[in-house]
Amino acid sequence: MNSEKLSNRLATVVKYIPKGFKIADIGSDHAYLPCHVVAQGLVPFAIAGEVVEGPFQSAKKQVALEGLTEKISVRMGSGLEVISPNEVDCITIAGMGGALIASILDEGKDKLGSVQRLILQPNLSAKSIRTWLIDHHWELVGEEILEEDDKIYEVLIAEKGDPLAPYSNETLESDLLFGPFLKKQKSETFTKKWLNEKKNWERILQQIETASNQGENNPKREELLNKIKMVEEVLN
């Protein structure tokens, strides 16, 4: 992968960046995504944020190599610390756990005033992000699921709006876990992901059933049974 040829995962994130928006890519690694969108003329300005020294230096090097230092600002800092209020229209965060992405948004929520779109790609626990979006009045407006290099990724797109719009009261728990849009689309990749998860939960359940301290495991057992039931209902 390089800034000319992004991975499918990052190319999917790029697909949802509105033309002309100023963006901040948090956890930018080599700054491939900002370099790509600026070089393609999709965005006029980008911030590449990194909290770790090595990736920060790699990002600076990549931006300089491509001659984009006037249009891409590489900054070192934790999460949304790297942006000022009203500086960008769109934030992308890719390649982290859902709980971490939610905590980055939470800690930096005072920076979200001018932000019109969030494009978030969790490696796991997308539910944490969906829950955060509801709690902070962001509307989930789209989702995509894809497989690359034997890993399955979800991409969530949110804008300010009615946080409950895509959800149903009757199936909220299920919608938060599976994604209201992904559930309806029920793609092959979606089915594969949740069959794998179900298999994993059944294996853990079997271990609990044979454990000697079953009483202590009752809440975990109930949680797993509930999740397995939800997968069966969604896939049927």
UniProtKB/TrEMBL annotation:
Pfam families: TrmK. This is tRNA (Adenine(22)-N(1))-methyltransferase TrmK. The keyword Lyase does not apply. SUPFAM superfamilies: S-adenosyl-L-methionine-dependent methyltransferases (SSF53335). Gene3D superfamilies: 1.10.287.1890, Vaccinia Virus protein VP39. The lineage of its organism: Bacteria, Bacillati, Bacillota, Bacilli, Bacillales. Keywords: Plasmid. The keyword Electron transport does not apply.
